[in-house]
Amino acid sequence: MTDIIIIGAGPAGLCASIYARRAGKSALIIEKSTFGGQMTFSPKIENYPGFEEISGNELADRMLSQAMALGAEIEVATVESLRKEGKEYVVTADGKEFRSYAVIVACGAEHRRLGLPGEEELIGRGISFCAVCDGAMFAGLDVAVIGGGNSAVVEAALLAETSKSVTLVQNLSFLTAEKTAAEALLARPNVKAIYDTVVDGYIAENGNLKGLSLLNTVSGERSDLSVDGAFVAIGLAPATGVFADILPLDEHGYLLAGENTSVGMGGIFAAGDCRVKSVRQITTAVADGAAAALAACNYVDGVRRGDAEILPNETLAREDEDGRNADE
User: Fold this and answer.
1) pLDDT tens across 153-204, in order?
2) 150 and 177 in contact (C-beta within 8 Å)?
3) What is the distance between the alpha carbons of residues 293 and 326, in angstroms, rounded to a whole number?
4) Same domain? 179 vs 41
5) pTM of the complete model
6) 163: domain CATH number?
7) Which DSSP string do the residues of 135-172 spell out, in sequence order?
């Protein structure tokens, strides 16, 4: 029996475990693959307070070491189900059952990928997903942004500030981003867009990305685009599928939970990129982790006293006059 089970070992989950242990609560982290989450894909992080520069792997190692030094337990397994039995929650992972009084879901969200051969090996070696995180590495160089939606336009605008050139590769005949933002971006002298085109291969040299193989879906013409980096901006996919019939999700699969991190179901809290929010950065993830851990600790104390408080789900409580969710 554990006080708090934390699903996911990204920055939100690791921070939650640190706060839980410092509050004297037992904590079990269940992680299916990578400790550190998406930040491990960033070879250089320059926007995390306290470090002028640090790799994502090193930052993840530091967080994990701190959590383990405080006594957090680790289980490498894939979560299969979550249910409540009386005052306890039961998490099943790889066929084993784990029990706790509270659960923090910090399973994160993954950048959608093209699924092309060699893609995984080139992540961090030319392929990136976050201009805020990695854009500085491509200052003065030629880069591509794959996608044409709002996130792609934002990424391209950030890259255009420092990169020599930015080429958007869009599979449609137009950008789907907000019109004003798209027009402002394309007015920049170092930005252009290639339409009706998909990336159907990566060109690598000595393990690093050197270009993209392109296919025009209208003409069938093939061409190569020489770039030093490519930012894949085709959306995020929250890793919440296992909770689809259990916890409240929005239409995109993100957990409905506000700044208090409560999903409105007693001892279950959501932290990090898997919950609805407007900014997804390492700093906002660890902030969620701290808030969720403190809320979970208070809930565990309440269970033991017999007066556990169920925090409201802020995203469901804050509705406008039309009855629509205020965060939409």
Assistant:
1) 989 999 999 999 999 999 999 999 989 999 999 999 999 999 999 999 999 9
2) yes
3) 25
4) no
5) 0.74
6) 3.50.50.60
7) GGGGTTSEEEEE--SHHHHHHHHHHHTTSSEEEEE-SS
